[in-house]
Amino acid sequence: MVFFGGRRLRIWTSTLQRTILTASHIPGFPKIQWRALDEIYAGVCDGMTYEEIKKNMPDEYEARKKDKLRYRYPRGESYLDVIQRLEPVIIELERQRAPVVVIAHQAVLRALYAYFADRPLKEIPHIEIPLHTIIEIQMGVTGVQEKRYKLMD
Length: 153
Prior knowledge:
Blueprint: E1 3-4, E2 7-8, E3 10-13, H1 17-24, E4 31-33, H2 50-56, H3 58-66, H4 79-85, H5 87-95, E5 100-103, H6 106-116, E6 133-140, E7 143-150
Parallel strand pairs: 3-4, 3-5
Antiparallel strand pairs: 1-2, 6-7
Helix pairs in contact: 2-3
């Protein structure tokens, strides 16, 4: 059992199998699943690659390309929807006194990172979140402190 500053680390995941499976490789810590941490819902495009969307739904592909922040997938979500959905998660993260590891998906991690790193709204869809990397964010007196740990090459 690992404690940080006398407090036990927690792991938060989405309800989707990829994050739950990733978290399962970190034994000994309490894990909490949040539906709010699920990936952006692509609606009728769910399960399609960007190439398939480009080929089969060129107007949707172009609309997303023009404004990735506000673009809403047909019967799905936009980045702005995801940001709104994350509000309760952010409030709960700010209340935590023990470290929290968030295992989530690209759009969600971009939105969370932008909030804590105080990045502009328009940048959110374009923030690089590298795979297989832990991004440690600590709030300090001088602002946000960030460290990155690459797990795999």
